[in-house]
Amino acid sequence: MQTQQTITLFGTVSNPAISRTSKNGRKYTAFGVSIISDRNLQAFHYNVVAWGKQGHFAKPLQKGTRVKLVIQAQSQPDNIATIPLLTATFVRPVHPVA
User: Fold this and answer.
1) Is there a contact between 55 and 19 (Cβ–Cβ < 8 Å)?
2) CA 17 to chain centre
3) Rounded average pLDDT over 62-91
4) Which of 8, 11, 68, 69 has the smallest number of Cβ neighbours within 10 A?
5) HEC states along the chain?
6) Per residue in 46-68, is it b (16+ CB within 10 Å) or e — as a string?
7) Are 93 and 58 in contact (CB under 8 A)?
8) Where does residue 5 rank: exposed (0-12), middle (13-18), buried (19+ CB within 10 A)?
């Protein structure tokens, strides 16, 4: 049995969600997210991909929306991307409590 480790993050959408179709015909939603470290207030930027139902939930995300993400990091050995890619297994906007 393969164990999948996930990480829960709270962040802010930095690039609005865009729905796309992969070369294999699978639909997904991609967006950017920024996480600010509590320790030194440094911002970390990530590209996020959400497939299936989570991709559907991510479609309306706009820049500046606070979100909760449960993600898995993806290795990119052949990719020259400078920003890590995360695969979302849970995506929800976080609404401030009034």
Assistant:
1) yes
2) 10
3) 76
4) 8
5) CCCCCCEEEEEEEEEEEEEEECCCCCEEEEEEEEEECCCCCCEEEEEEEEEHHHHHHHCCCCCCCEEEEEEEEECCCCCCCCCCEEEEEEEEECCCCC
6) bbbbbbeebbebbeebeeebebe
7) no
8) exposed
pTM of this structure? 0.77
- Separation between Cα atoms, residue 31 and residue 59, nearest integer Å: 9
| Whether pLDDT at 19 is above 90 | yes
Question: Tell me: the pLDDT tens digits for 40-55?
Answer: 888 888 889 999 888 9
Q: Give the Å distances, CA to CA, from 84 to 3, 47, 76, 81.
A: 21, 6, 8, 7
Could you tell me if 86 and 69 are in contact, meaning their C-beta atoms sit under 8 angstroms apart?
yes
